[in-house]
Amino acid sequence: MPSNPETEDERLTRILKRVRKIELVTRGIVKETLGGAYHSRFKGQGIEFDDFREYQPGDDVRFLDWNVTARMNDPYVRKYIEERELTVMLIVDVSGSGDYGSQEDSKRERAAEVAAVFAFSAVQNQDKVGLILVSDQVEHYLPAQKGSSHALRCLRDILNHRPKSRRTQLGPALDLALTRIAHRALVVLVSDFLTPDTAWEHNLRLLAAKHDVVAAQITDPREWELPAVGRVCLQDPETGEQYIVNTSHPAVRQHYAAKMSEKQESLTRVLRKNGVERLDIRTHDDYVPALKTYFRSRRRRKR
């Protein structure tokens, strides 16, 4: 006999348990390994004067102080306290393909964990965090605010939201982020990027020109290659279309792998062309090493 469908109360209880687990795991990751490293690129000039220092090659000549320069007989520049506050905007894809998972976690659940790492990093650094959920339309917008309760709300919304559409088009969310974020920010785009086209590249280019954008691609190992298990019925989670595929045929598996490789190469070109950094997250792997590598490379570039 079929099992009884999950009631709404049971579903909410399950989601709250998941939120609590993710909170504990990601807070530990932030505290022990990542800290505020995501913040390093945004240490910009603040508005509060701090001190003078001797001019060094590469300094902005607009900060030269001619009175001090005349007294010291050497060029001196004004130094300002670095501006620390940052907005972290999470854009999370909630289209139908995110519900898939051949492992313990679905792609949606793994996306929530990755988003939580950035959200709790923002909390630790006294920064604001906001959320945009997107399918082929903006499903939900949560303006950026400070505080752990707001970060937890972002996490709950990612896991609990029931999208109006199951299709994917990232452009509307990128446009919303561009119009709603007033100052330079860190935008974390979390998606499997299984979009029918790259029509959103123009929107990405505009956003990346104004903000620092990081693309976290969440994929499942079963999406990379077909297992040889004979004839199977495959269903597109976004369109509902079904296909009978003979996975025992080597040419079928090779064609599928080639198409996946082609999609990945296209995504790589789009991100690289627009100066967007990429995080490769797999549902069957520990994502902490990938985040550590990303933050270490960011610190090296800063130095």
Strand content: 15-25%
Count of domain modules:
2
What is the CATH fold-level name of the largest domain?
Rossmann fold
Report strand order across the widest sheet. 5-4-3-6-7-10
Individual helix count: 8
Question: Averaging pLDDT over every residue, what do you get?
Answer: 84
- Described by the principal axes of the CA atoms, the overall outline is globular
CATH homologous superfamily (4th level) name of the largest domain: von Willebrand factor, type A domain
**Which sequence of SSEs, written as H and E, runs from N to C?**
HEHEEHEEHHEHEEEHEH
Rg, please? 23 Å
Structure commentary:
It contains 8 helices and 10 strands. It has helices spanning 8-34, 66-72, 107-124, 148-160, 171-180, 201-210, 250-273, 288-302, and strands at residues 44-54, 76-83, 87-93, 128-134, 138-145, 186-191, 212-219, 231-235, 242-246, 277-282. Helix 1 packs across helix 3 (107-124), helix 3 (107-124) packs antiparallel against helix 4 (148-160) and helix 5 packs parallel to helix 6. The chain has 2 domains: 8-41 and 85-302, von Willebrand factor, type A domain (Rossmann fold, 3-Layer(aba) Sandwich), CATH 3.40.50; 44-83, no CATH class. Residues 40-47 have low confidence and may be disordered. With 303 residues, the protein is an alpha/beta fold.
SSE topology:
Blueprint: H1 8-34, E1 44-54, H2 66-72, E2 76-83, E3 87-93, H3 107-124, E4 128-134, E5 138-145, H4 148-160, H5 171-180, E6 186-191, H6 201-210, E7 212-219, E8 231-235, E9 242-246, H7 250-273, E10 277-282, H8 288-302
Helix pairs in contact: 1-3, 1-4, 3-4, 5-6
